[in-house]
Design goal:
The chain is 45% helix and 13% strand. It contains 15 helices and eleven strands. The protein has helices at 4-9, 22-30, 44-57, 76-79, 89-101, 109-122, 127-138, 154-162, 174-182, 204-215, 229-237, 259-267, 290-294, 308-324, 347-369; strands at residues 15-19, 34-38, 63-67, 144-147, 166-171, 187-191, 197-198, 220-223, 242-245, 273-276, 284-287. The strands form two sheets. The protein has an eight-stranded parallel beta barrel, surrounded by six helices. It has a three-stranded antiparallel sheet with strand order 7-11-10, with no helix packed on it. The longest helix has 23 residues, at 347-369. It starts with a helix and ends with a helix. Bound molecules: flavin mononucleotide (FMN).
């Protein structure tokens, strides 16, 4: 393909995959695309293991990492020292009351404490902690660092470039994309509201061309709502140089998502991917569940700011629910293309299917425009 991002990384197709699952990362890169490992919630030890495994299985193909480098978690450093006073009582009571009423067994007290402590010790909150994780990753042959929250610091961009590593960042508005460009990013990922995970409010259809124009001539990847070849063709038609996908890999054979969640994803419709602050504290698109529904009730507390709401859901809710796999409470970040996901196939088949459909979309357009 005559494409700057393919040239930048020596890849065959400009399909970039975000995944927390190393198998997906490896398979996308081996299929000719580019896998990016989400490092959020990994301890340094786990990160080393994951990257070593990727290096051993990826056949020398390029891959990257995605980091949460928060700029607004100013109090986060203190959390580690006072985990028992983390949550205001009414928030704890709301989540506990919800699960008690549904008959979800509580966690034993000792276990709960261990879970919260281990969650806190594994999360990298502060810029220093994130930098330490990036230092570990830089000891591996990573080709790309993507910053999930905000613009990467100049020092990070300089350190990456000195090692030949490219840097990119996610943007939900043209002004954020411009800031990424000013900080020296090599390309920008424009994320429409349809996306799984943290999203803004602008649709991909409107956002992609406006970001392309704002940061030109910097390349842009279109993200949010890409799960098939016609959507890849649309991204290219709107001026993007490729796509960045997260949701489409979730039900794949290589994904580590638990089978009960895969089943719920495969049964969901587009409107079941709801945007809520109750999972992380920031607007995040996730699979509708009894938990997200409860936060829509008038008696629900306003979700806590990030990262506290995330810890509340993870430590007090998700762990309890996933232990016994209470289906109606199971949720997972996912975008509106969930309504289009109807079966479990391999990552390679998904990549090849996208390319085949993209090419037939081009033929159809060519025929129409002749
Ligand atoms: C399960 C899941 C977890 C995600 N976690 C992160 C994350 O940790 N960091 C990040 O930059 N983006 C994260 N995202 C968002 C993706 O990077 C990407 O923007 C989004 O998936 C693209 O839209 P799509 O879901 O329609 O493909 C996540 C997405 C999903 C589906």
């Amino acid at each position: 393909m005559n494409n700057r991002l393919c040239d930048m990384f020596g890849i065959d197709v400009p399909i970039f995959a975000f995944s927390h699952c190393r198998d997906v990362v490896v398979e996308v890169s081996r299929a000719g695309g580019f896998g990016v490992l989400g490092m959020a919630r990994m301890s340094p030890t786990r990160l080393r293991e994951e990257l070593r495994w990727i290096d051993d299985h990826i056949d020398g193909r390029p891959y990257g990492i995605d980091v949460l480098m928060p700029t607004t978690y100013s109090e986060a450093g203190d959390l580690k020292f006072d985990p028992d006073r983390l949550f205001p009582p009414e928030h704890l009571e709301f989540v506990r009351g919800l699960l008690d009423a549904a008959g979800v067994p509580p966690l034993p007290a000792a276990e709960r404490e261990t879970i919260i402590h281990s969650l806190l010790s594994e999360l990298s909150f502060t810029p220093d902690e994130s930098m330490a994780m990036i230092e570990i990753a830089m000891q591996h042959p990573i080709r790309l660092i993507v910053n999930a929250l905000g613009s990467p610091p100049r020092e990070l961009v300089a350190a990456a470039h000195a090692r030949g590593i490219k840097v990119a960042a996610l943007a939900g508005k043209p002004k954020h994309a411009l800031k990424h460009k000013e900080r020296g990013c090599d390309f920008v990922i424009a994320v429409g509201t349809e996306a799984g995970g943290h999203t803004g409010s602008i649709t991909s259809m409107v956002l992609w061309p406006s970001v392309v124009d704002a940061v030109a001539p910097l390349p842009v990847l279109g993200a949010g709502g890409v799960g098939r070849g016609r959507q890849v063709a649309a991204a290219l038609a709107l001026g993007c140089e490729g796509v960045w996908c997260g949701s489409v890999w979730l039900p794949s054979a290589q994904s580590e998502v638990m089978p009960e969640i895969k089943e719920r994803l495969l049964a969901a419709e587009a409107e079941d991917a709801v945007q809520t602050r109750c999972v992380t504290g920031k607007p995040c698109r996730t699979l509708r569940s009894a938990f997200t529904d409860a936060y829509e009730r008038p008696d629900a507390p306003d979700p806590l700011p990030a990262p506290l709401q995330n810890l509340l859901w993870w430590g007090e809710g998700r762990t309890r629910v996933e232990r016994v796999r209470t289906r109606e409470f199971l949720t997972y970040p996912v975008g509106q293309i969930v309504g289009d996901l109807r079966g479990t196939t391999s990552v390679r088949e998904i990549v090849y299917g996208m390319m085949a459909e993209m090419l037939s979309a081009r033929e159809r357009l060519d025929a129409m425009l002749e």
